[in-house]
Amino acid sequence: MAEPRGISKKQAAAYAGCESLSAFNEWVRRGIMPKPIPGTRKWDRKAIDAALDRLSGLQPKIEAQLTPYDAWKASQNASAAERDQLVHKKAR
Question: Superkingdom, according to UniProt (predicted)?
Answer without folding.
Answer: Bacteria
